[in-house]
Amino acid sequence: MTGVFGPMDREVAQVLRYLILFAVHFMISGGIASFVVISRVHEDRLFPRESWGCAIPRLLHRNRLHLFLALLALEAAVLVLITIDLFGDLSSYISGGGGGFLLGALAPFAVIVVLVLLVSIAGLGAATRSPRNFAYAVSYPFLPLYILFRPVTDLFLEAASKAFPDLPRAIASSFFLFPESEESGEGFIEENGSRLMHSIVEFGVKKVREVMVPRIDVFALDVHTPVEEARERVSEAGHSRVPVYDGSIDKIMGVLFVKDLLRISSDGAGDLGQLVREVQFVPEGKKIDDLLREFQLSKKHMAVVVDEYGGTSGIVTLEDILEEIVGEIRDEHDYETPLIERISPGSYAVAGRMNLDDLEEALGISLPTDEVDTLGGFLYNLVDRVPDEGEEIEYQGIRFRIHRLDGQRIAEVRVELPRDGREAE
């Protein structure tokens, strides 16, 4: 034993140093991601002014450009400390006459780089999965850092704006910050622009099953339907393209263009089978950006979505995909049926078919989205059966009451948020 601490004590201390540095790195990566995901558009809902518990997260979110600069400085310090520790290990290894110098030098670097990347990914994943909760968790430890660095970041931004007038705006835009102008109260990018930017970012990871019209809502015609009856039903539905099946919706033959149906003689004579055009079939897990490119190449506007057994899961149209970027596209045949409607503070009427990701964003809550895509599917999984009308289901303090069933389908749910001062306003 040389000195007060033995070799084992030094190794334990070194491991603890690495654990602390990686924990700080995790918080920084997740903290940056959480405040980026929560756009200015949603700030008032996720961090309501009336809640005293939201004061610090709201303060940091409104000044997130200054916070990010402080976090970047802390991140640099963490990486420097990791590097110093690593070089200390290397020097000890070399001075100790360790063999295989190249392997001994590269192996620690490789391990540390992989660990840093894994911790970064873990932080980003945790923050994007539940951005509001992560932002609350890191706000209090980040507050002293923000206060300490605020004079420095003020000086930096002031000097940078004089030397490079477009630099602060470029930094803000690169992080999707869209800070407000103190004079006008307006952001660099308007609210609609901010929503559009976030939609584009999410577009690349969405899959067909998240945007398709589910099987139960698909309007389709049997190939043996009389032409006159087909005309009447199509006129009521208001669609320009209709899937045609033979006996069962799992046996879709193709798609019928309504304009072709109208060309048949007025006496109604004819066969729908002669008018059916080829339709594309795609799996549920296909990414919508890939399908959009295929639509562009094939000049088609509709595809049939099939499940793993080859059955019809739903249909997806070009309009469904474009709506993921620009929002709902409505025409004269579409009826305004909002997926979510506020009834009172903390109480909402929600359609059972509403996407869970959209519900999380709208209410600022966190629900498991790995196995299902809709609120109805989530509630089915929660109780493991078809619930009854009026039945109440509770999950992590959130109360779901089945307001209306359509057959076996959950049509409408009343959602009551816990009154903990963090409910969406």
From TrEMBL:
Q: Give the CDD domains listed for this entry.
A: CBS_pair_CorC_HlyC_assoc
- Keywords attached to this entry: CBS domain, Cell membrane, Membrane, Repeat, Transmembrane, Transmembrane helix
Name of the featured protein? HlyC/CorC family transporter
CBS domain location, by residue?
212-272, 275-332
Q: Into which family does the record put it? A: Belongs to the UPF0053 family.
Superkingdom in the source lineage = Bacteria
- List residues traversing the bilayer: 15-38, 67-88, 100-127, 134-152
What SMART domains has UniProt attached to this entry?
CBS, CorC_HlyC
Q: Specify the species.
A: Eiseniibacteriota bacterium
Name where it's found. Answer: Cell membrane
Give the organism's phylogenetic lineage.
Bacteria, Candidatus Eiseniibacteriota
Q: How does it sit in the membrane?
A: Multi-pass membrane protein
Q: Which GO terms describe its molecular function?
A: flavin adenine dinucleotide binding
Q: Which GO terms describe its cellular component?
A: plasma membrane
Gene3D superfamilies on file: 3.30.465.10, CBS-domain
Where it mainly occurs, coarsely classed, is membrane
Q: What Pfam families does the record tag this protein with?
A: CBS, CorC_HlyC
